Request: fold
Amino acid sequence: MPEGPLAPQVRADGPGPRAVLSRRFPHRSTGNNGANRHRPRRHQDRGYPAGRGRRRTGAAAGAHPRGDYAGTVAAINGLVRALEAEAGPRTCTVGVGIPGVVSPRTGLVKNANSTWLIGHPLDKDLERALGRPVRLENDANCFAVSEATDGAAAGAHTVFGIIIGTGCGGGIVVGGRALVGRHAISGEWGHNPLPWPTRDEWPGPDCFCGRRGCLERWVSGPAFAEDHRRTTGEDLATAEIVARAEAGDPAASASLDRYVDRLARGLAGVVNLLDPDVVVLGGGMSNVARLYRDLPARLSAWCFSDGVDTPILQARHGDSSGVRGAAWLWQPGDS
Reply:
């Protein structure tokens, strides 16, 4: 079994992997193939950061892992090697969070909105590249475990964690452990249809999964910007739409109001089925302050209850929470 105090971690869910060095358990390396950059960090004791850095992997670095499966594997391999060099002459364990899952039936990645990962044995290819065992998990599951362990939902028994960024992933944690499910699709709320669609919302936009009207096509960051563009003709970034809404722009405010209502309807389905103690929001859209002001009342209106007071909280560990959760795919004594 590897020995030593540090462990790099990786998450693979976008244009470029990110990684973390962790002192939480001996030699764990995790990574995230996302956000156009590599993100090495060190954690000590129970996972709190002792240092932080970023490595560009997009255009600024002259490399484009997005759309390139072999390039993604090479980028993660290079990042882990670089982090190990920081840690000293040791071999680390590796945990990876991806925006999809490895199918229990085929051993190949499925359901990934980073579609170039689909149909590949990513865990096995990383194991060959790194020369050691690798553990893969859905990035939203990793996120939910991180926030349930020592994040915004620390101490809660049942936690639903969602990442609303480029996609719309979800993870369920009960008693500190992620629920994966028979087919490894627990928490995949983003590929259920938008509940209670209006006439204007039916049948909904096409989704990469082959269906129409999936929740992901309404409440992800790109979907928010697309809805505003369809309605107003303005091609604006999500942050600009939110800023205009907060400044009182009527069209932007209406777009944000539609977004909040759709997110409330989607979460109502989760509350009706799971009734979690806490809902934690992560991803770029989780930074929108109006969500925490307006969602609770909107959610209660759609739930099958005489009242709903489910806390809706922003992730404590920000956009690195999923990377931290990937570190905990390895536990003390694992080999």
User: Anything to note?
Assistant: The chain is about 35% helix and 20% strand. The two ends are 5 Å apart (CA to CA). Confidence is low (pLDDT under 50) at residues 1-8, 20-29, 34-54.
